[in-house]
Amino acid sequence: MLSRRGFLKGLLGGTLAGFFVGGYAVAEAAWQLRVQNWAVQPPGWRRGQRLRIAMVADLHACGFGMDEGRVAQVVEVANAQGADLIALMGDYRATHKFQRRIVPIDVVAPILAGLRAPLGVYAVTGNHDWWDDPQALARKVGPCHTQLALEAAGIKVLANRAVKLGQGDTAFWLGGTESQSCFQRKNRRDIIGMSDVPGVVAQMSGYDPAILLAHEPDQFVTVPDRVALTLSGHTHGGQVRFGPWAPVVPSRFGQRFDYGHFREGMRDLVVSGGIGCSGLPIRFGVPPEITVVDLS
């Protein structure tokens, strides 16, 4: 039979363990930053054509853990990866309640303008970028303020648009969609998105290979074989992760596209674990990361 002293020791041990795990989760979110590499050979990609992409996903900038200095650090690390192309994957500012200070996109965008890559820096917007813009929500149409701020800083935003990069045997299409979750009613069941995958793919003429930037990986199920690789963020890898399992993934497909490299048929998908936090300012088992994808 468990004694009172034994019970109190167990309670104290559990409490201390809880404080330790909680403190570690906050520290992991606020101070860690790793580079995660994926080597991908999509069936639809031109054999022998090498391309390095650095993904910066889900910054969620705010006064705790992701302030201006931290964003500048992300820019420095991303620039150090020698990427041919840098992709900004949406959700640039935090909208959670645990913020000591708001860091607006008008402050974040000029810092992100310091990113450098030979083929350019391209961005898409995410659901939080729309939710942070009352005027866009009222209009039910873009561009949202985040897009305007990024463009004012010289960053190209692919809002349901495709561009052709490279020349000759190294040419490829780069497309970007809007978020699937731009507008939500209070019960969060009536979700209206602005994503237009068919419209973006229709702009990709000819036979050069194609890459799609889509904030939410759920869009991958609608992507045709015309697109060799889809890049996404949004899930944060679950934000709290125990090995291969994440208790909560913001996707209607659960863990199907939660984090990492996936292949379905002739199509590949890489989902970044992202950098910032949503809901709570914690990460556990999935540190903030810059995701580097090497295609060949």
Number of helical regions: 7
Taking pLDDT < 50 over at least 5 consecutive residues as the criterion, the unreliable ranges are 1-25
The CATH class name reads Alpha Beta
Q: What is the chain-wise order of helices and strands?
A: HEEHEHEHHHEEEEEHEEEEE
Integer-rounded radius of gyration:
20 Å
Which class of secondary structure composition applies to the elements? alpha/beta
* Strand runs, count: 14
Mean pLDDT: 89
Helix content: 10-25%
What number of structural domains do the residues give?
1
Give the spatial strand order of the biggest sheet. Answer: 1-14-2-3-4-5
Overall form: globular
- Predict the CATH topology: Purple Acid Phosphatase, chain A, domain 2
Examine the secondary-structure arrangement and name the CATH architecture: 4-Layer Sandwich
Question: What composes the largest sheet?
Answer: 6 strands, mixed
Distance between the termini: 63 Å
The proportion of residues in beta strands is 15-25%
Please describe what this structure looks like.
The chain is of the alpha/beta class and 296 residues long. The protein has one domain (32-295): Purple Acid Phosphatase, chain A, domain 2 (4-Layer Sandwich). Helices cover 25% and strands 21% of the residues. It has 7 helices and 14 strands. The strands form 3 sheets. It has a 6-stranded mixed beta sheet, with helices on one face. The protein has a 6-stranded mixed beta sheet with strand order 6-7-10-11-13-12. A two-stranded antiparallel sheet has the order 8-9. Strand 8 (183-184) and strand 9 form a beta hairpin. Helix 2 (68-79) packs parallel to helix 3 (105-112) and helix 3 (105-112) runs parallel beside helix 6. The longest helix has 28 residues, at 4-31. It starts with a helix and ends with a strand.
